[in-house]
Every structure is written in structure tokens, then in C-alpha cells.
Amino acid sequence: MLEPTHNSELPPIPTKRYFTIGEVSDLCAVKPHVLRYWEQEFPQLKPVKRRGNRRYYQRVDVEMIRTIRSLLYEQGYTIGGARQRMTQEDEVPTPVEIQQVARDCISDLLKAQALLNPPL
């Protein structure tokens, strides 16, 4: 994710599994109605809904909201620009995917080496 510039001024994210919309609002300095609007605008933002359609956000959601907040309020992106930037970030491979590609390459190279240098 992006490194938000002023998000260090926000309170630290507690080590909890789920956060209510009010808690996320306080943690990200964004009003609840703005969070609900961002859910419509950013397809990546999908909090878990339980009991009477109540939203429960996970830590990754809070971090994403902080990134969106930084893009919109600090870096001057429009909603469309921030959505496009967030979509581009989704296309970046994760470290696990990179490791898997590296393992596959090593495996292929070892097979090629075995074919080129057969045991005597």
C-alpha cells in the first residue's frame, strides 16, 4: 500500500480483529457517512456485514481507508483518480506471488541443467 504522508498523526490501529464503523471513523478521522460512500466508490473496500447489516472492518480495511484518505485529502486526487491509483496497486504482485514465481524459475532451471548435464 501507499505510504500515507500525514497518517502518522492518526492514532495507532489497535490489535483487534474487527472494528465498528464508529471506531474506524475515529481511527481514520473520517465521518461514518464518508466511509459508507467510499464503500460504493472503491470496490476493494468490503467490510464484513453481520447482525442487521452492521459493518465490521478488519485491520486491512482500516489501512486501506487511511490510504484512500491520504490520496484524497493530502495528495489531492479526485475520487476517480484515487480509484484508479488503488486499482493499479491491486495489480502489483504480492511477495508470496513473487516467491512462487522465483521457485518455479529455479525449478525450471534445475530441470534444464539436468538435461544439459546428465549424470555419468
Structural class determined from secondary elements: mainly alpha
CATH class label: Mainly Alpha
Strand order, largest beta sheet: 1-3-2
Specify Rg, calculated over alpha carbons: 21 Å
User: What would the average pLDDT be, to the nearest integer?
Assistant: 87
- What kind of sheet is the major sheet? 3 strands, antiparallel
CATH T-level fold name? Multidrug-efflux Transporter Regulator, Chain: A, Domain 2
Number of helices: 5
Order of helices and strands: EHHEEHHH
Fraction of residues in helix: 55-70%
Provide the β-strand percentage band: 5-15%
Envelope shape: elongated
Could you tell me how far the N terminus lies from the C terminus, measured between alpha carbons in angstroms?
51 Å
The total domain count is 1
Level-2 CATH architecture: Orthogonal Bundle
Question: How many β strands by DSSP?
Answer: 3
Q: Unreliable runs, pLDDT <50, ≥5 residues? A: 1-5
Topology:
Layout: E1 19-20, H1 21-28, H2 32-41, E2 48-50, E3 54-57, H3 59-74, H4 79-90, H5 95-116
Antiparallel strand pairs: 1-3, 2-3
Descriptive report:
With 120 residues, the chain is mostly helical. The protein has one domain (7-92): Multidrug-efflux Transporter Regulator, Chain: A, Domain 2, CATH 1.10.1660. The protein contains five helices and three strands. A three-stranded antiparallel β-sheet has the order 1-3-2. A hairpin with a 3-residue loop joins strand 2 (48-50) and strand 3. The termini are far apart.
